[in-house]
Sequence to fold (373 residues):
Amino acid sequence: MQVAIVHDYLVQGIRGAERVVLEMHECYPDAPIHTLLFDAQRMGEPWGDLDVHTSCLQKMPGSLKLYEKLYLMMPHALEHMRFGDAEVILSSSSAWAKNLCPGGAMHVCYCYTPARFLWHWTREYVAGLKVAAPLKAVVKASLPGLRKWDKRGSERVNAFIAISEAVRERIRKYYGRESLLIYPPVDTDRFQPSAQVAEDYYLVVTTLNPYKRVDLAVGACTRLGAPLKVVGDGPELERLKGMAGPTVEFLGKVADEELPGLYARCRAFLMPQEEDFGIAPLEAQATGRPVVAYGAGGALETIVDGRTGLFFAEQTEDSLAEALRKMDGAEFSTEACRENSLRFSRESFRAQLIETVAGLHDRWTRGERGVLV
Fold:
């Protein structure tokens, strides 16, 4: 079975989706990786040693820095990508790769979500654009056409695999398709409980984009005078610094070897955003630490309320602050948090993916075509 792996683009460093691609490659080590754009320097190891193929956009001057502005060219570039003799194309997609043209191959899409900016986050996306009003109007006018293209592209997928029940529901709502479910992998070997005593700080680890709602964590901890460490950077950084009190510390990007210790020593991990799944709160639980999360989306599937964390019901600073007050008298078992995280291990992901793709391919080779799921 010859497999090709396709990912949207590889230009932002190694985050959750990029780690999934690496796990896919572990399942199919001979598979080439195709992507619209590839920044080898920013991606670092082990990407430089992998067989990565790019689209025509790679040759455009400045494309690696201006990739977000090339969104109207991405459909054309993607549909002209070719995948050699692949019998199975495994796409890893939150926006573009899902819409590839598979030729005669079977196409299985591991879907993180239907594109947020086209479907369930359009208003917030347009409002958050930091461009002049005329250009914002142009972007807004382009979205209905892209939405139609995205819907048509979904019809070329033979089988969807969703990362969570929340995403399964979106695939059903926007594409009219059913999907299988395989949770993303968490490196539970790397993230382990620490013998050190937990310190009195809350922790956020995320990209500082508006939809991550880090402002709620900063505002609530500032109000309560609670220590908060924020790991990550992004366009919201300066605004967040401007609203932060003296108990909030911005660490920027931290080295990979430092992150497990930050998790293991925190009082609790904070997730104020609604996530499609959310790997970071599971990394925290793998170290034995509880999570305070907005009770929606993937958090409902990865956190056990009252056992491995607490939910707050409204996505407001007041609601989060009330949950943090409840943390004062709450106790959580390191073992319970760790045990919950093990349901999402890398080994479990690999076994499920290999078995699922093999089963679909067997049906394909026996003559089933079109929609398999």
Notes: The domain at 202-343 is CATH 3.40.50.2000 (Rossmann fold). Residues 133-154 form the longest helix (22 residues). The longest strand covers residues 88-93.
